[in-house]
Design a protein that fits this description.
Elements: E1 6-8, E2 15-17, E3 19-21, E4 33-35, E5 62-67, E6 81-88, E7 98-108, E8 116-121, H1 138-141, E9 144-150, E10 155-157, E11 162-164, E12 175-177, E13 184-190, E14 202-211
Antiparallel strand pairs: 1-2, 3-4, 5-14, 6-13, 7-11, 7-12, 7-14, 8-9, 8-13, 10-11
């Protein structure tokens, strides 16, 4: 059977164990067939052999996106809408795709450092008026993909500003799904004190591990 394929199983239900032909005079002898295995990353029931033009899937790409929401410049109170839906552009690779939120960094250039809540949503619908109570409806709540509470104790004073970087315990590591576009949206709420901000006093950076859409 030198050089021939071997059929495993019987009755037409078996599968082929392919063999390659060795063309040297060493062991195995010239003309002998040896089994070979090639990498394949096709889905169940299909084949997608690995080639130069069809490599193994790479690790999902990481995307670092900074947003600067628009703030009111009057003093806030606990429970107020800090900033309304702010676009996180191309958080996913494609419309309807998903992305894992892996990191959040908050820069408070106004040096407040008071507790805030962040909501990642896949809907661009307004949550109400700045400096007033949140006004999200049930339908809007269904669009929320991640909730990140940031306590005053999370902030560190580094001079003229404060920074906070919540950990996995603060819901970092959740998968967010987009809807109708590749974008996600960020909403913020004041949760303590009576802070006063400049119009662009908060800068929020979000890291996403993007998931390929098949």
């Amino acid at each position: 059977m030198a050089g021939a394929n071997v059929t495993e199983g019987a009755g037409g239900t078996g599968y082929i164990v392919a063999r390659d032909i060795v063309g040297t005079a060493t062991v195995p002898a010239a003309g002998d067939g040896i089994q070979y295995v090639k990498l394949d990353h096709g889905a169940a029931g299909s084949s997608s052999p690995v080639t130069v033009l069809n490599p193994l899937p790479a690790a999902p790409p990481l995307q670092w996106i900074q947003v600067t929401p628009t703030l009111d410049t009057s003093a806030y109170a606990s429970g107020d809408l800090l900033f309304d839906v702010t676009t996180i552009t191309s958080a996913a690779l494609a419309s309807g795709g998903a992305a894992e939120l892996v990191s959040v960094m908050v820069l408070d250039e106004d040096d407040n450092g008071t507790a805030i809540d962040l909501y990642v949503t896949n809907l661009s619908t307004s949550w109400g008026s700045l400096n007033a109570a949140l006004a999200a409806t049930d339908a809007m709540g269904r669009g929320v993909q991640a909730y990140i509470p940031i306590a005053a104790a999370d902030f560190v004073d580094i001079g003229g500003c404060k920074i906070a970087q919540p950990t996995v315990a603060k819901n970092i590591g959740v998968v967010c799904e987009t809807s109708g576009s590749a974008n996600l949206y960020l909403v913020g709420a004041c949760r303590s004190g009576t802070p006063t901000y400049t119009a662009s006093g908060l800068r929020i950076s979000l890291g996403f591990r993007q998931v390929a859409v098949s």
